[in-house]
Amino acid sequence: MVNQLLESSVSPGPIMGVVVGYWQARILLTAVESDVFTELSASPATAEELGKRLGLTMPATGDFLVGLVHLGLLEMTDDMFTNTAVSERFLVRGRAEYLGGYLRFCDKELNPAWDGLSTTLRTGRPHNPAAIEGNPYDTLYRDAEATEAFLNSMDLLNTPVALGMSRLDWSPYTSFVDVGGARGNFAHHVVARNPHLTSTVFDLPPLEREFIRHMAKLGAPSSLSFQGGDFFKDKLPEADVLVFGHVLHNWGGEDRVRLLRNAYEAVRPGGAVFVYDPMAGGDKPPMNAVLASLAMHVWSRGGHEYSVAECHGWLKEAGFRPETVEVADLHDDVLVVGHKDR
């Protein structure tokens, strides 16, 4: 048996690579939590110097920083550590493309839910207690720090999508509602490039103050407004277009049809509903879609990714005429438009 193992070309490397991947993630998340990259952006330092600035001890801090070098996030020259180009751009607090908010959301919200994957597989229920009780966002938005981290991550992820969507032909429409639009970042980018539009962001009431603050920061026009409500309990605002971006994958199939039926009532004749999500179908969807789907299983109430064909079916059931629309620069997302005929 030993000889067979020695002669085999099969290695446990892929298995060990997955295991140590978790350890590498912990190094990154701890570095962000400790503001390593922000400190080094201000001035390079040795391990001892940085440890004193951050309140970290030696010799563990030295190993920690060398680990970040191996991850491609720091450079080391003559015992001095500096940021790499990627960490300087995305991991320095205060930068426009700072990823720290998204990483904090993963660490504090998604990762604990992932710890219950085996339970979710056995029971079909999320491991997130807030999702079991109802809407996970209700609990999330009670924590100011968690809310800020989540909104930062949503803005970072939806900005490139918004820029792609803003290049669509919006001339047939005069208004749209961004359903679950958080603090209005997507709506702002679309209206900025299509000033004939007015937009309403519809989301849970606690986000109104965040919307007001974010719009003031962006210098957004008065054509953007906020309406608080729960899209499972309240009527959706009327408009030419209703947008569901990264919303449907948070909920189960029955809830998706329910939301789209409510949207049909709110969309004006000749208008449409825009749905964008990864929508990776087939027998072997890409890994990013599988991970996103499993994240929704463990964190949300019935959420998971779905295919374009499924989206078409739900839109038809709600009364819309579906069409898949090609959009440049939509990254991992697919846009399906459901038309409401006159």
Radius of gyration: 23 Å
Strand content: 15-25%
Euclidean distance between termini CA atoms: 73 Å
Mean pLDDT: 91
**Helix/strand/pairing class, anyone?**
alpha/beta
Strand order of the largest sheet: 5-4-3-6-7-9-8
User: Got a strand count?
Assistant: 9
Tell the overall outline. globular
Number of helices: 16
Low-confidence stretches: none
Helix content: 40-55%
Element-by-element helix/strand order: HHHHHEEHHHHHHEHEHEEHEHHEE
Oligomerization status of the protein chains: single chain
Biggest pleated-sheet summary: 7 strands, mixed
Q: Could you give the topology of this structure?
A:
Layout lengths: L1 H6 L5 H21 L2 H7 L4 H8 L5 H11 L3 E4 L2 E4 L1 H6 L9 H15 L2 H7 L5 H5 L2 H5 L3 H23 L8 E5 L5 H9 L4 E6 L4 H11 L5 E5 L10 E7 L7 H14 E11 L9 H13 L8 H11 L2 E5 L8 E6 L3
Parallel strand pairs: 3-4, 3-6, 4-5, 6-7
Antiparallel strand pairs: 1-2, 7-9, 8-9
Helix pairs in contact: 7-11, 7-15, 11-12, 14-16
Describe this structure in words.
With 342 residues, the chain is of the alpha/beta class. Helix content is 50%, strand content 15%. The strands form two sheets. Strands 5-4-3-6-7-9-8 form a seven-stranded mixed β-sheet, with helices on both faces. Strands 1-2 form a two-stranded antiparallel sheet. Helix 7 packs across helix 11, helix 7 crosses helix 15 and helix 14 packs across helix 16. The longest helix has 23 residues. The protein is globular, with a radius of gyration of 23 Å. The model has no long low-confidence stretch (mean pLDDT 91).
